Design the sequence.
């Protein structure tokens, strides 16, 4: 196993996850400010899950005797429209799942089963996040933006993915 290859893959994922944390918290703040509290809470809960991903990735980097690079992959995009926010989040989750699938394959080719397993777990989480965002987007398309406003006044709060509740 070439641990330098694994460390590079892991640090790339750390950068992507840090960007997701920043982006999702930005969305959380603005959706909450717009009065869309349940959707804002969903973004906050998933941002916290993404912080857990950073921690798991960092622990693996350290196990491999590398140094954790704590630089986000990019800047936060200033998106304010709820539908555009969900589209951006869905895109980010799809890209992460695609990237982590490739990283799992690369890790397997590098004979690093531990890193491969971590990336496979991350794929499942990212697909779950995508599903949550897609459900919200589909409901907005079906019912309009009033769907979000009515959530804020009713008892039907948006729930975080089931895997998030267990951690």
Sequence:
């Amino acid at each position: 196993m070439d641990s330098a290859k694994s460390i590079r893959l892991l640090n790339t994922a750390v950068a992507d996850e840090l960007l997701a944390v920043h982006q999702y918290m930005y969305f959380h703040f603005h959706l909450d400010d717009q009065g869309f509290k349940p959707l804002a809470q969903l973004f906050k809960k998933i941002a916290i899950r993404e912080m857990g991903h950073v921690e798991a990735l960092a622990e693996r980097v350290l196990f491999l005797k590398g140094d954790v690079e704590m630089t986000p992959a990019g800047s936060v995009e200033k998106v304010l429209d709820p539908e555009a926010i969900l589209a951006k989040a869905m895109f980010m989750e799809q890209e992460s799942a695609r990237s982590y699938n490739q990283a799992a394959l690369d890790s397997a080719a590098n004979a690093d089963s531990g890193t491969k397993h971590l990336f496979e777990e991350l794929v499942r989480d990212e697909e779950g996040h995508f599903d949550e965002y897609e459900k919200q987007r589909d409901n907005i398309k079906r019912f309009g933006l009033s769907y979000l406003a009515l959530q804020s006044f009713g008892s039907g709060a948006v729930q975080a993915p089931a895997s998030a509740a267990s951690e």
User: Anything to note?
Assistant: Residues 3-33 form the longest helix (31 residues). The radius of gyration is 17 Å. The mean pLDDT is 92. Residues 1 and 111 are 5 Å apart (CA to CA).
